[in-house]
Design goal:
Length: 224
């Protein structure tokens, strides 16, 4: 089955986790776009959503779904988002779409993280997908050198020859060549480097459950 169809399948399956009358946390990316479209068709009324990017907020509003400011709401029941990679423990690489910082914030404010992904995202060890790291631009040189010491090659993300600018007005380094054997320790370490806004390894905010799109249907992976 085409990757797009697998994404649509898990996006629809995620509706089962959305309770009418609640505010749902919504991530970013092509899989989440399909989830938002499915939410738009949902008969049961939602109170609204907290979104992890300007792009998702726009799409939610286009469907008539109210978008709440994350700072104005309490704990959310569920956060639904895609991933660039997911390991056997539910740890993820995220930020391919550049929204990692807000994604981690909304995930941290949610009781349950439901990851929606096609089966190509499942990996034994994180790191084949370059690790996105949102940074304060003036720290780029030093952070690049620190990753080099770990064996990583950090590349400034560019679009049309210009540095990519996040919703938070910062840049992203994509770090190639790392194998993240210990995601929790890696995340804790890199998160403390001066100038790092957010590292796209989600270990503290790992998924509680993953709805994985496979050729034979949706597989539900639950993580302890
Ligand atoms: C955006 C993300 C996305 O969840 C991730 O890139 C997966 O995207 P897609 O659903 O398009 O494959 O982390 O920052």
């Amino acid at each position: 089955m085409m990757q797009d169809a697998l994404k649509a399948m898990v996006a629809r399956a995620a509706l089962a986790y959305v309770r009418p009358g609640e505010i749902v946390g919504v991530g970013t990316g092509s899989t989440v776009d399909k989830f938002i479209d499915a939410l738009g068709l949902l008969g049961a009324p939602l109170a609204g959503a907290v979104s992890s990017s300007n792009a998702s907020s726009e799409r939610l509003r286009a469907h008539g779904i109210r978008v709440f400011d994350c700072a104005e709401v309490g704990e959310l029941g569920v956060y639904i988002d895609g991933a660039d990679e997911i390991d056997p423990n539910g740890c993820m690489v995220k930020g391919g779409g550049g929204a990692l910082t807000r994604e981690k914030i909304v995930a941290a404010q949610s009781r349950q993280f439901i990851c929606i992904a096609d089966e190509s995202k499942q990996v034994p060890v994180l790191g084949r997908f370059p690790i996105p790291v949102e940074i304060i631009p003036m720290a780029r040189g030093r952070i690049t050198r620190q990753f080099a010491k770990m064996g990583g090659r950090a590349q400034l993300r560019c679009v049309d020859g210009e540095p990519f600018v996040t919703d938070n007005g910062q840049n992203i380094l994509d770090v190639h060549g790392l194998q993240i054997e210990e995601p929790l320790a890696f995340e804790a370490d890199v998160s403390q480097w001066p100038g790092v806004v957010c590292v796209g390894v989600f270990a503290r905010q790992r998924a509680h459950c993953c709805l994985l799109g496979t050729a034979s249907g949706v597989r539900t992976l639950a993580f302890d």
